[in-house]
Amino acid sequence: MDFSFSDEQLMLQDVARRIAKEKIATSAEHFDATGEYPLENIQLLGENGLMAIEVPEQYGGSGMDPISSVLAIIEVSAADAAHATIMSVNNSLFCNAVLAYGSEAQKQTYVRAIAEGSEIGAFALTESQSGSDATAMRCRAVKQDDGSYVINGQKSWITSGPVARYVVLFAMTDPTKGSRGITAFMIDANRPGYGRGKTEPKLGVRASATCEIEFQDYVARAEDVIGKEGEGFKIAMSLLDSGRIGIASQAVGIARAAYEASVAYVKERKSFGAPIGTFQMIQAKVADMKCKLDAAMLLTLRAAWLKSQGRRFSTEAAVAKLTASEAAMWIAHQAVQIHGGMGYSKEMPLERYFRDAKITEIYEGTSEIQRMVIARNETGLR
Ligand code: CAA
Ligand code: FAD
């Protein structure tokens, strides 16, 4: 067992930490308050190879491993979770879709544009009536005689939807086949038949723009299919295995920021003539926060390590996402409590950590769905 990181992993972590401290932490409050999309910061992440971390260098990416992604997302998330949402979806759900299942032409066209930081990618699975029950989708792609598909329907809650040029879309090509009737497509938002709804106002991760997208007789060419017809649901599920490592990393970043702020505060804040960190009830909170943070971090790294070894990591990704998201929520909650009135104030970032932590228990599969995935995989029962 080796708990150390390679020089390359540490270098990427360092790049992410520098941008996070200098540009993201300093603007996080503004983007949280306004809900504006942080375009310049995202472009800066792209220019530094952080929007295509695992993309091979031949397609313009950083050519790094899944552990590097974890380290980089944690740094960005500790500064601002909304930036980490955009980064994680682009890296794990969009880039991985094309890398793992796309044709050579798709890799050259779509991944290269994303890796250069000039475009951003999105992933569209959820619909208004089908979130957890993803196979209940209604978005329909009807095959034409020339091999193209005409797509009609809507997708909800699409991260980066308001800005994304390219979207990995899942649509029903054969409703009689259930999950085996779903196909993945590469969508270009600049083509006719593509529409965007209003940006959703949200509790947290407010700078990560989210919206509904609509398809009205959008024509996808035969070469826009990702993988094979009917394989879309398995593709979505396997991408979400990777995506859940990204969200676990995001949760670890929020938890670390809340924990570090708390450790600093309990040393400086005095009550009854002593630093509050000398009180046993506060010490217990610090100790429990540390245990949950370390467990979340190690489980996230375990899932990433299994992925980097080419081994199965579906259960471990769900374990990491469930543990890390619940740790982030709990730690952020305790951090607000430790800060007293200041924890509730917008003058400090604790209330933002608290609001941002909540989403990690919801998207890329709720905590209930992670428990379902883990228990099904462990027992073989359904
Ligand atoms: N990898 C590959 N294939 C998989 C798989 C995986 N991890 N998990 C399931 N499959 C396959 C199954 O083997 C099965 O294949 P067969 O047809 O050959 O039998 C097929 O997929 C259907 O599987 P299930 O019968 O298990 O499907 P289900 O309808 O019971 O659903 C579920 C399972 C786990 C609940 C799934 O629907 C799910 O994960 N729901 C949550 C959806 C989700 O996470 N959405 C996230 C949207 S993206 C997002 O949220 C981004 C963001 O926030 C930033
Ligand atoms: P529902 O599925 O309606 O669930 C409601 C409640 O019922 C939850 O507590 C759930 O856990 C519970 N529940 C449902 N089924 C079961 C069950 N079988 N057993 C026990 N409990 C159950 N989607 C995308 O495709 N792309 C994106 O980029 C994207 N980004 C998002 C960004 C944000 C900010 C948000 C809020 C959502 C995003 N989503 C995205 C959608 C997200 O993945 C879904 O919201 C999530 O999967 C839950 O689906 P739902 O909202 O429909 O809730």
TrEMBL record:
It catalyses: 3-sulfinopropanoyl-CoA + H2O = propanoyl-CoA + sulfite + H(+). Residues 122-217 form the Acyl-CoA oxidase/dehydrogenase middle domain. Residues 230-377 form the Acyl-CoA dehydrogenase/oxidase C-terminal domain. Residues 6-117 form the Acyl-CoA dehydrogenase/oxidase N-terminal domain. Keywords: FAD, Flavoprotein, Oxidoreductase. Its cofactor is FAD. Its EC number is 1.3.8.11, 3.13.1.4. InterPro entries: Acyl-CoA_DH_CS (IPR006089), Acyl-CoA_Oxase/DH_mid-dom (IPR006091), Acyl-CoA_Oxase/DH_mid-dom_sf (IPR046373), AcylCo_DH-like_C (IPR036250), AcylCo_DH/oxidase_C (IPR009075), AcylCoA_DH/ox_N (IPR013786), AcylCoA_DH/ox_N_sf (IPR037069), AcylCoA_DH/oxidase_NM_dom_sf (IPR009100). One of its GO terms (molecular function) is flavin adenine dinucleotide binding. PANTHER family: ACYL-COA DEHYDROGENASE (PTHR43884), ISOVALERYL-COA DEHYDROGENASE, MITOCHONDRIAL-RELATED (PTHR43884:SF12). Belongs to the acyl-CoA dehydrogenase family. This is 3-sulfinopropanoyl-CoA desulfinase. It comes from Stenotrophomonas humi.
